[in-house]
Every structure is written in C-alpha cells, then in structure tokens.
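ingest -> fold -> write
write: protein_1
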Amino acid sequence: DVFEQPHHVGHKKIEFHITTDIPAVLQNNSEKQKNDLYAVAEEINNTGFGRIFPAPSSNDKMETEEEEDEIPSEFISRRDLEKNRLSREEMEKYSVFKNYEPGDPNCRIYVKNLAKQVQEKDLKFIFGRYVDFQSEVERNMFDIRLMKEGRMKGQAFIGLPNEKAAAKALKEANGYVLYEKPMVVQFARSARPKQDTNEGKRKK
C-alpha cells in the first residue's frame, strides 16, 4: 500500500503536464499507467487541447491539394506547363526528339536543347514544383547544374528528391518550350561511361 501512494501523486502530476508532451509521457511510464494515460489523452483531445495531433493530416491534405495545382506561385503551374508543351506529333518534327529515349529511372534528370538565355532560376521555376521546400531533406537534394560553356552548353542536370518526382518532372516537362526552344528531358545516366574506366585500366 505504501508504494501505491506515490503512484497516485505521480499520476496527478502527469495529468498537469500531459498537454505539453503526451508521447514522451506515454513512453516513460509503466504499462499499468499507459492505459490510464491513453484515457486521459483522449479526454484532452476531445476537449480541444490536442490540436497539435491533427496537424500532420492537414499537412497531407495540403500536399495533395498542391498536386491538384495548388503549387506556390513561385513555381510554374501545371496549366502553364501543359499549355507550352509540344504535343507528341509536334515533337516528331524536331530532330532533337529523334531517337528519344527517357533512359533508366533515377532521381537525377538531364535536360538538353536549352536556349542561350536560360538561367538556373528558369529551371528552378519549372522543376521546383516537384520539390517540397518545407522539407529540409528535399530542399537539400534539389540541385541544378546548368552548363553555360564548352561542349555541354545548353544542358543541365537536375537532382530531385526521389525517382517518383523525377519521373513526374520528365513526363510533364519534356517538350516544354522555354525561350522558343523545346526542352528535351531524360533521366541522367547515373554512372560515368564505362569506357573511361576501361581506358584507365589499359593505360596502367
């Protein structure tokens, strides 16, 4: 009996702190108290203190809405992408789309046939719509390398958060006319050409 006394006192204390951090309290307590606490937590949720918990689901809703074209205005809308994209028949008229192969899916895409005046911000405007900028991980994975000189001029490599985003970007942006030139979008080749490594070995 003596040992149960402090338990009740502790339980009351827990009720005071429960609104701030229910999960931590649940993790730290014994099995017996867990059930009581779940009940308390539910009561608190019902009385309206638990608004923190539904937040993630509303976030999900926002994300799905964004897919429905609620993309922030700093990025291109799906409508504009579709409006300025060549149809399959029109693509066939351009030599750059001859023998077009999307390549093996991965999270990096390769863009060529870019006009001279294209800048990184133009590519960010188009491909930024496939990145969740609220997520630090996705932000860090988004990477644009635009080549402005030498043989690679008019080409860019864009790193996206995942294969799904890259596939969507390829599907929606391939053939998009930017500064009067249609972009050719493919999956980047992930590995360096094998010939180089063989040549290196031969030289040794």
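write: protein_2
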Amino acid sequence: QGSCIHDGTWKSAVHGLADQDNLRKLRKKIGYAPVPVVGAKLKRRGFMFYNQEFKKYSIPFMGSDASVVKRSQRYLHTEFQETPVQYGAYVNIGGLGSVIKLMFAGILFLILVKFSFGRKLLTKYPEFFSAGYFTKKGPTQKQMDGTSFTMTFFGEGYSEGQDPQNGKPNVKICTEVKGPEPGYVATPIAMVQAAVSLLEDAASLPKHGGVYSPGAAFSKTKLIDRLNKHGVEFSVISKPEV
C-alpha cells in the first residue's frame, strides 16, 4: 500500500536545511583536525548520476549519515589508532520520471526553506509539498507491515602488507544491512538493543562520559550480534579480489 512518513521527520529536514550555515560555523569554531585520508581519495559522485551497480538513478543522501560516520572514524582513529574509512552515502530514486519529479520538488523545497514564510508553508502542508509522502498521521499498520529497507555498502581497500600510499586499492567487499520498516519498527529495535548493550557491555563502552556517535560508543560491544538476532541483519555479500 505504498509508504509514508510522519511529518516530524519532514520538519527536521526543513529546519535542518534552513540552519545548515550555522552548523558549518559551529564545526569551524570547534576546529577539529581533518580525519587523515589513507590511500586513494574517495571520489564524490555528482548531484545526480546513473548508478551502474543498481541500474537506477541516484543522488547523494541528504541525511546526517556521512557526518556521523566521519565523527566515528575520528574517534576510532584517535583512541585506537584504527585506519579511518572514507565514506559516501547515496540513495536510489529510480528511473528518469522520478528524476524529473525530484528535481522540481527539490528546487522548490530549497527555495522555500530559505525564508520563514516558506518554512511555515512547508511545515503546515507537508502532504501537499511532499506529494503525500509525509503526512501528519504517519503510516498505517498495513503500510508499515509492507515496508522494509536495504542498505548496500561497496568497499575498496588494501590487502594485508600492501602500502596504501602506493597503487590503487586491490581488495573489494560488498556488505548489506536490511530489516523491517526503518522508522517505526527497525529504529525501536535498534534503540532497545543499544540500551541492552549499555547495561550488559559496560566494560566495552568508552571510559569517559560525553556525546558519542553510535559507531564510537558501540564499536567494541555485541550490538551487531544483538541486532542480527532481532531482525536487523548485517551480512557480507561478496569479498572478491580485484
């Protein structure tokens, strides 16, 4: 029966984009040292491109995933001297018709979020401006039952003993995370299992208090094992040598 999302997420996107300049200023003020780039630099794909892996058009994912991953990598590199990973996030949008619709909707959205009047319109009429995808009621039970998510990760790196500064990556890996409806089913599963990890894996948590990204807080715990047992599945699809 299709899918839809509660307008709380829509409001987060509206106010998040409107405030992005202030976020940049805050990050600049903190003055973090750049995360080291090891090996070949990850190339950013264009604003819109044809994804050969999925035979669909894709765009950069507008969520906070890339920023959160970078924060995790900084922590793991600083605390455990782990080699930082470069990361980019993209979302498939389908065929050419979907591309045209998204372009018009995206341009309108980006213009409106810049003005307080535009933001009021967007938050007051989410269903109209999102073509029914975001609603004040949220999804029905049938919609949630019929929805799932899949995230596919394509990684490249270096085999044991090879110097990353010399030559191109020579090892590839493809992994996947999949589960039930992401907003209202998978998220509560993840939060409950994270809470269990806080209680049962205390010795594996960071030693100092503070605000941590999930990757930093739970990297040494059994959280992934717990998620696998409760319907959010992590798996390796392939590991071919280049």
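write: annotation protein_2
Residues 182-200 form the longest helix (19 residues).
The beta strands are 5-6, 49-51, 56-60, 90-94, 134-135, 148-157, 171-180, 233-238.
pipeline exit 0
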